[in-house]
Design a protein that fits this description.
It is built from 12 helices and 10 strands. The chain is of the alpha+beta class. The chain has 3 domains: about 120 residues, Acyl-CoA dehydrogenase/oxidase, N-terminal domain (Butyryl-Coa Dehydrogenase, subunit A, domain 1); about 110 residues, Butyryl-CoA Dehydrogenase, subunit A, domain 2; about 140 residues, Butyryl-CoA Dehydrogenase, subunit A, domain 3 (Up-down Bundle), CATH 1.20.140.10. A hairpin with a 2-residue loop joins strand 2 and strand 3. Helix 8 packs antiparallel against helix 9 and helix 10 packs antiparallel against helix 12.
Length: about 375
């Protein structure tokens, strides 16, 4: 992939935003278990960072996804994964379907303020009994005049404690599970919406994650994104950006983990010499860096195909699978070289060890990615490669 001066300028803008607005506060936000999303998102919105590849008619930049990729990669300079994840929910998870299939009225009302940062958003798909198995969700929206009445619950919803609206996947019919689902925009201020208590997580501590409950929530049918019954398909398309976002966002973070550990190994002496002088250690860094660059190339290729209009389900799934597993390998390998220091809570590599574990779970677990890849390879029982 070839990058223009505009790509590089965007990278500098995002890196400067991270250094000035995020990294100085992130330790405090980690201890607090949350960050001021509206305040930070408004700052990001003023820089155009929440609408890079969104339509200009609603305040976006109207650029192709390669620019969004550059921004996401540079967010990897954050000293923790929680804030990039929260921003990624806004740009790559809760808004792509709305931007693509929403009516003009719906996009003016909900997409435009999400792009400026005036509104904080969440994607609400997972349930206690249906995480990676999206077809198994139970939340129901029944028609009542010109409205829907929504009943059910969602679990592990990022940004939920501060969200102004949710992009909610619900069942709107009794038909086949892949044809009875619809995406609906649900403002959190509506009667019957209850945001549950924040969930205590292993990592991503600065990001608020909550269950959300719906008790006969009345939502106008005009809040529906696209046609009724097309929600599963739309969410699968939306997953492409979510999985690319996860893979892209991991790359620079792994670079940082390796770089920090190399610096530590130069300073730390054992048996009269720096740790870095051990061949087993510097060879291991060479292996890890090679793997990271291989992932970067895979992601760049997937994004190029995505920009070209190709279905990148297989490549996005491969990239996410590789990113999740490699992130764990990098964090675990590097933590070992920090010794006892690496086993302390505030160590940067220990934070990476906790935060990156989510990548193999959220947005579709590794096993789901393997199933998708195997299916598209035509090697599942009863399936033939086309």
């Amino acid at each position: 992939m070839r990058f223009t001066d505009e790509h590089q300028q965007l990278r500098r803008t995002v890196k400067d935003f991270v250094e000035k607005e995020i990294n100085p506060q992130i330790d405090d936000w980690e201890r607090a278990g949350a960050f001021p999303a509206h305040e930070l998102f408004k700052k990001a919105g003023k820089l155009g960072l929440l609408g890079i590849n969104k339509p200009e008619a609603y305040g976006g930049m109207g650029l192709d996804y390669s620019y969004q990729m550059c921004a996401t990669e540079e967010l990897g300079n954050c000293r923790g994964g929680a804030i990039p994840m929260a921003l990624g929910v806004q740009t790559d998870m809760a808004t792509p379907a709305l931007a693509r299939w929403g009516t003009d009225e719906l996009r003016k009302e909900f997409l435009a303020p999400a792009i400026t940062g005036e509104a904080v958003t969440s994607i609400a798909v997972s349930e206690a009994g249906g995480g990676s198995d999206v077809a198994a969700i139970k939340t129901v929206a029944k028609k009542d005049g010109s409205d829907y009445l929504i009943t059910g619950s969602k679990m592990w919803i990022t940004n939920a404690a501060q969200a102004d609206w949710l992009c909610l996947l619900v069942n709107t019919g009794e038909g086949p599970v892949h044809q009875n689902k619809t995406l609906v925009i649900v403002p959190t201020k509506l009667k019957g919406v209850e945001i549950g208590p924040k969930i205590a997580k292993l990592g991503m501590l600065a990001s608020d994650t909550c269950p959300v409950f719906f008790d006969n929530v009345r939502v106008p049918q005009r809040h529906r994104i696209g046609e009724e019954g097309m929600g599963f398909m739309m969410q699968m398309v939306q997953f492409q950006e979510e999985r690319l976002c996860g893979a892209i966002g991991s790359v620079r973070g792994m670079d940082r983990t390796i770089e920090a550990t190399i610096a530590y190994c130069r300073e730390r002496e054992t048996f009269g010499q720096p740790l870095i002088n051990n061949q087993s250690i510097h060879f291991r860094f060479a292996e890890l860096k090679t793997e990271v660059e291989s992932l970067r190339s895979l992601v760049y290729r997937a994004v190029e195909d995505y920009i070209g209009g190709a279905d990148v389900t297989m490549m996005a799934s491969m990239a996410k699978l590789k990113a999740g597993r490699l992130s764990r390998e990098v964090a675990d390998s590097c933590l070992q070289y920090w010794g006892g220091m690496g086993f302390t809570w505030d160590n940067p590599v220990a934070r990476a060890y906790r935060d990156t574990r989510l990548l193999s779970i959220g947005g579709g677990a590794d096993e789901i990615m393997l199933g998708i890849i195997a299916k598209l390879m035509g090697i599942l029982p009863g399936k033939k490669k086309k």
